[in-house]
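pasting for the record
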Amino acid sequence: MTQDKSSSTCDSDSIELKHGSISTPKSRATFAEERRLIEGNLHNGIESGKFFPQTTGGLADPYAKDDVRSMAPPVDGKIASGERQGAAYLDRTDVDWDKHDVTSDTPLEFVWSFSARHKYRRFNYFITKAGWNPTQPLSRAQFESEPFATFLNERQPYWSYSDEEMWPEQPTRHTLTLPERDGYQVLLGVWEIAETDKAFYQVVDLNFVSK
């Protein structure tokens, strides 16, 4: 049987479909949507190309070569919004974002909730570098180049498994041990999809306090 491996991307105007977000601790997008500062349900649709921090598209997954190749990830300065016009507010640097108090080297549970699900490949978690500058737009230079945590779906090729076998759990819970940091930092969670060229981006604002 021949498998159609073309990208099954979502309609950019149908943000109610097949999306997800970090619900605990609340992401920047969730806070903004609650205050009607971004379009309704767009917290679940911060969608752009996969394989951050790459800058180009057309890349194969180094782990799962049969996954759909990527489109370009969001450009610097538009990482929090995923370049979604209706979410441009999330990229602003003049906002005092709601921050969650956390401590270094301490486990913290992150929960993804989904309005619908995709066959996925991995979840990656990045964090800003010590000494990053919050007055500047979020960029690749502001984040560590490698994720500090990755949760990989080892099943491949994706089309040989059912939706239920390849979908993330609803909800999906990850317990992360946060790296050593002090003060305000930004965590970036990226949910990468096997069956499309995209990923979903979630920024969570953290305030590291002493134990």
